[in-house]
Amino acid sequence: MQLITCIIERGKADVVVDSALKSGAQAATIYYARGRGVREHLGFVGKLIQPEKEVVLIVTKPDQTQKVFETVIEVAKLNQPGKGFAYVQPVQQAVGFID
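and the corresponding structure tokens:
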């Protein structure tokens, strides 16, 4: 299994999760966070970026990961500066994942 972690703008998580589920993900976890770093580097434009974020965790089977990841990037507009960040990492062990 693999874990997709998305750090996105506050208020976008429900749309991202709905799209991920339609793309084959079985479930997702959402929690709130506060980001720092990018805002400071972008100067004036950084003032427009809200520090409050939502973090979405999605565990997928390897054959689903790319499709779900691409969907998340598209829906959250992660290819645009300041919109968020996402990455994939392997899951070594898990319990409770329903096949």
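(Above: one complete record from the training split.) Strands lie at 2-9, 29-34, 52-60, 84-90.
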